[in-house]
Write a structure and sequence with these properties.
Helix content is about 40%, strand content about 15%. It is α/β, with parallel strands linked by helices and about 260 residues long. It has one domain (about 1-255): Metal-dependent hydrolases (TIM Barrel, Alpha-Beta Barrel). The protein has an eight-stranded parallel β-sheet. Helix 5 (about 135-145) links the parallel strand 5 and strand 6. Helix 3 crosses helix 4 (about 110-125) and helix 8 (about 225-235) packs across helix 9. The longest helix has 17 residues, at about 110-125. The radius of gyration is 17 Å and the shape is globular.
């Protein structure tokens, strides 16, 4: 009934209870999940999970907030993406949140890494998983100038305005909402969620982070994407099963499954 379009089941938070987490998914009618790569050393574990379990998929990429790590090449990303269980490139994008006193020019390594992922996605013809934080203008500009609309993708864990959502959707991207949309003070995100049409909507947990109400503050898990769906259904005036069905179909269409 539901698909968690973004989670990190390879993280240490799940090392001792993964089978329980997968059982919770089943019991909550979360039928599939996309496990997201954040660096090169961890990709092996991400792919291993996707290879072992039929209902899990993988992405390949290096997170924009990881500075002191192995740098991916376009060739390496394309080679890993040949595996049929790897259905996306990322997560990639820009994150200026911790920029602090650094100059704009000092962040060029992030922008160059982002471009590398986009070119790999275009070559492999697989969609992008986009992370953007305090960098929406540059994120949209780079997506435009690199013709990322050729492959599209998803703006994951969306926390931006309606205008940024519109610009992203104009480039063929889907908008994914996490448990943040259930938070009491996330008023702009709720309004943006109302604005995004159902046929461009995805849901996610970003687990182990950002557990939705009523589990806020706990280690998040894919089973709880059902709470995200329930909350969005209420915002949009439809039923939870409708959100489950529509977001599942959107996931299949985007990732060509």
């Amino acid at each position: 009934m539901f698909i968690d379009s973004h989670c990190h089941l390879d993280f240490d938070d799940f090392s001792s209870n993964l089978e329980e987490i997968l059982l919770n998914m089943k019991n909550s009618q979360v039928n599939q999940a996309l496990c997201i790569s954040v660096d090169i050393p961890g990709f092996t574990n991400v792919l291993s999970l996707a290879s072992k379990y039929d209902h899990l998929y993988a992405s390949v990429g290096v997170h924009p907030d990881y500075e002191d790590t192995l740098e991916p090449t376009q060739e390496w990303l394309v080679e890993q993406a040949k595996n049929p269980k790897v259905i996306a490139i990322g997560e990639t994008g820009l994150d200026y949140y911790r920029m602090a006193d650094r100059q704009y020019e000092d962040m060029e390594w992030q922008r160059e890494r982002f471009r590398t992922h986009i070119e790999a996605a275009k070559t492999s013809k697989k969609p992008l998983i986009i992370h953007t934080r305090n960098a929406s203008v540059d994120t949209i500009n780079i997506l435009k100038t690199t013709q990322a609309d050729q492959v599209g993708g998803v703006m994951h864990c969306f926390t931006e305005s309606k205008e940024v959502a519109r610009l992203a959707m104009d480039l063929g991207f889907y908008i994914s909402f996490s448990g943040i949309v259930t938070f009491k003070n996330a008023l702009e995100i709720k309004e943006t969620c109302k604005y995004v049409p159902l046929d461009r909507l995805l849901i996610e947990t970003d687990s182990p982070y950002l557990a939705p109400v009523p589990h806020r503050g706990k280690v998040n898990q894919p089973a709880w994407v059902s709470h995200v769906a329930e909350y969005i259904a209420d915002l949009k005036g439809v039923t939870t099963p409708e959100i489950g069905h529509i977001t599942t179909q959107n996931f299949y269409k985007l990732f060509k499954l």
